[in-house]
Amino acid sequence: MKVRIFVTYKQSVFDPQGETIKDAIHALGHQGVTGVTVGKFFDVTFAPETADVEAAVQAIADQLLVNFNMETYTYQVMEEK
Amino acid sequence: MRLAVIVFPGSNCDLDLYEALHTVCGADVEYVSHKATSLAGFDGVMIPGGFSYGDYLRAGAIARFAPVMKEVIRLAKAGAPVFGTCNGFQILTEAGLLPGALKKNDSQRFVCKTVALEVVNNQTRFTHQYTAHERINLPIAHADGSFYADQATLDQLEANGQVVFRYAEENPNGSLNNIAGITNAAGNVLGMMPHPERAVEAILGNTDGLRLFKSLLTPAAAD
Amino acid sequence: MKQAMTPEEIKAQKPYLDWSLSEREYNYIAEELLGRLPNYTETGLYSAMWSEHCSYKKSKPVLRLFPNKNARVLQGPGEGAGVVDIDDGQAVVFKAESHNHPSTVEPYQGAATGVGGILRDIFSMGARPIASLDSLHFGELDNPTMKMKVQDTVKGIGDYGNCMGIPTIAGETTFDPCYSGNLLVNAMSVGLMDQKHLQKGTANGIGNAVMYVGAKTGRDGIHGATFASADFSDENATQRSAVQVGDPFMEKLLMEACLELIEQHADWLVGIQDMGAAGIVSSSAEMASEGQAGMELNLDLVPQREPNMSAYEIMLSESQERMLLCVVKGHEADVQAIFKNYDLEAVVIGRITAGHDYVLHHDGQEVCHIPVSTLTDDVLEEASEEREPARLKAAKQAPAWVPGIKDAGATLRQLLAQSTIADKSVFFEQYDSMVRTSTVVGPGSDAGVLRVRGTRKGLAMTTDGNGRFVYLDPEIGGKMALTEAAANLIATGAEPLAITDCLNYGDPTDPEIFWELHHSVMGMAEACRVFDTPVISGNVSLYNENNGQAIHPTPMVGMVGLIKNLDRVIPMAAQHAGDAVYLLGQTGDDFAGSELQKLLTGDIAGALADFDLQATRDNFHRLLAEMQAGHIASAHDLAEGGLGVGLAEILFKTELGVNLTLTLTKDQFFAETAGRMIVTVPVEHTAAFEAALGTAVTKVGEVTNSHWLQVRLADGQVNENVQALQTIWEEAIPCQLKSKD
């Protein structure tokens, strides 16, 4: 089972990378773009027998993948192939 | 006072910190591996700069799980002096020993230069040999040095005198309140992005960092 | 699928032509060396090992012109890096390497892995890297693509070196349209060691283990070596996928583990070598060849990142951060334990065998069985055709170009904004120049200077290459490149020791380009003899072309010098008001190839005037003696933009000015005559200084407190506020990078 975890800055935190990319998009002529948020994602693959995958995902995000001083996260369980 | 310089995989300012303490200041100091499970016999901890674990994930995020960090946290809670510069500062925030976090520089670039700082609080065990509001110059060298904390935390830091160093002219990374270095509420843990260990010898052109180590090694009468 | 083709199919279909092995070479291998048809794997190995990048088959006859020995040289070319004695049982180890082709394709990773590769060359010798330098040549900063390439290159160099904790302390960055389609990214590394730790890339002792350490092998960079030996065109853009990705964290661990092994357990180790170009095959074959040993490897044991790799792919992969060791039988587990402590894998992949054969097994089959020397020693050297470029003959007959400057102050302001002259701090501030706390002089000066910890010694280092002069006259340009490097070191108070080089040229099968290579090396070699700076390492990068358009011939000189007393490091900047200002060397009408010519005409043309190397060298050494006597306040080598720009540079970031009277014309104020320096001398030492230097120096005025650059010339004057000049100089490149063009 595969879970994709997305980590981004909290909305209140200034994201200079996103701003720079937004400027570049405007330079390409896409003036309709009003915001860009940069983040990262982690594809975490669990053994099929893992019990309570969602609890594990939350623990992993809380303890390691996310710095709650500035970041937040969402995740989605990917379709099995 | 016996000090431990912690060496993580990817630390690269460990030599600089060791030499500043040992060769320049004559301190009793030893390298300690990240795998060590005891810091018994040490009176203080020095966490060097560098790229622990390649700065993969986030600067300092993986180092905090190293075996030695349990002991660092134990000593910090017991009131022993704990100092982190650059990646050391990042590790201390990730480990929860200092509030806030270090974001990527606003410029999106690594920056290495000498910057002007104000010694905001000279009443700490790390800064008592500086004068109040003294201007000093120290080198910086980092890509993730933009200090961030929420407003309540910032207010608290300012009110408690936990802001120890502030960028005095140019803010090189976008740090909130121009913060360059902070202590914990108890004052025994100091984290700072600038590198005082790079400014302790006249041959290298700058000795403004020397008094930080001298402060640490010769506690003021009030301590 | 063990072999993609049978030997007969290879003979018939000639796939080796795509791998840059010629039919003549293939036939020679089959008929003369093996007496049979090589199989698919073997053909691939030959094509990589016989590439110019690995074998120097075209450039070798020219490289023999270089001197490579003197009393201080402990190791010359042929090993990972050259080694020079710096007294007290210590040695300095250095080498430069080009990564032009990978950086042109993917500037960030190309530059990063260029740094990583050269660092491995240094620590494979047993030395700890203490400094990095670079020499970067880009197209003009007038289009978004080049701006991005420049920033990516700089970030790549910074990210790798910063993470490794090796300071980048000096370098050069120039801009010219000739590099737009083919960047030059040359990286140099300098290491320090105790001579007793010196290692070699060798393997011998029957039964000894061949051990693989570091990162796993993937399909990245296959045929990088042959890729570097063919030119770029838009058609083969799809072939431009062979770029390696660097992992500086892995390399930091690898470096610490290798140095621990070398410094503490040298008796377990027979030899060690970086897996650079052509990966496992070049490192293993070169080690066996050096040790005159046979070697048998089982490729199934090679740690692999991807499934189903063929023998050919495993052997030719240029995955980064890997080293090959030859370990004394019985100590395999000891070596593994050291690497394990750094969380690194160390795997026995083969053994040293009796005889001289190179044997590979893969998937239970023998896939290669050839004499080792056929890979390394039997390469057919290629005689190249050469012809003096037509432009050189024409230039010698054409009348000399005369600048005819009206307002020298205005010209100075314009020159300071030329990207090759302007302040580069926007780039070098992205490099950690201070880590390891030994940097006495960092980037932005004539040369970088490091102290040797625990001694009174210092090491000065510089990289210099000016393709424009070499383009106009390869031989004189070659001499100038050496002279410029020597001047940069002397200006800091260092005595030049030796050089490394990267010889960057176009397609050598063009007779005019081969002539450029040959004649520039002649000039460099002559200057190496005069300055007693042998060539101890280096590399050759050919086929630097894009769509048939070659770069200027650009030999890069990386020179290292020794400072015997750190108290006598000479700064570049003027020091005190009242000091006398001297010009060392004579100034001529040297405008061909100058920044002034490029500024005023948009191009370069003309013939270069020859200059007296021996007199230049003697002047430099008399100046050095005065520096060591403590008589000199500051010294600065004059290069791009001539005396005008040099004077501005010694006043930047000070509060001082100069007041000078010169017999030079406004034009000559910007001439780029080689072998000159601007020197400031405290008044109490001027008599001794003048007695020592005699007619080599001319007193031109004094340092003032005014922060103005005031110069009376034969036909005009310059009166410029230094702060205003500095602002122009500092803002030029940031401004170009930001503009939306």
Comma- or semicolon-separated keywords:
heterotrimer; B: 223 residues; alpha/beta; Rossmann fold; 9-stranded mixed β-sheet; two-stranded antiparallel ribbon; 11 strands; 21% helix; 26% strand; globular; C: 741 residues; alpha+beta; Phosphoribosyl-aminoimidazole Synthetase, Chain A, domain 2; 7-stranded mixed β-sheet; 28 strands
User: What's the Cα radius of gyration of chain C?
Assistant: 26 Å
Q: Sketch the major β-sheet of chain C.
A: 7 strands, mixed
Mean pLDDT, all residues of chain B: 96
Helicity level of chain C, as a percent range? 25-40%
Q: CATH homologous superfamily of one domain in chain C - what is it?
A: PurM-like C-terminal domain
* Widest β-sheet, arrangement of strands of chain B: 2-1-3-4-11-10-9-6-7
Write down the CATH topology of one domain in chain C.
Answer: Phosphoribosyl-aminoimidazole Synthetase, Chain A, domain 2
Main CATH class of one domain in chain C = Alpha Beta
Question: Greatest contact pair?
Answer: B-C, 31 and 31 residues
Count of discrete alpha- or pi-helical segments spanning 4 or more residues of chain C: 25
Please identify the structural class of chain B as seen in this structure.
alpha/beta
Report the sheet-strand fraction of chain C: 15-25%
Q: Could you describe the largest sheet of chain B, including whether it forms a barrel?
A: 9 strands, mixed
- Give the beta-strand count of chain B: 11
Kindly state the number of beta strands of chain C.
Answer: 28
- Estimate percent helicity of chain B: 10-25%
Series of secondary-structure elements of chain B, N-terminal to C-terminal:
EHEEHEHEEEEHEEEH
Spatially, the strands of the biggest sheet of chain C line up as 8-10-7-11-9-12-13
The dominant shape of chain B is: globular
Going by CATH, the homologous superfamily of chain B would be Class I glutamine amidotransferase (GATase) domain
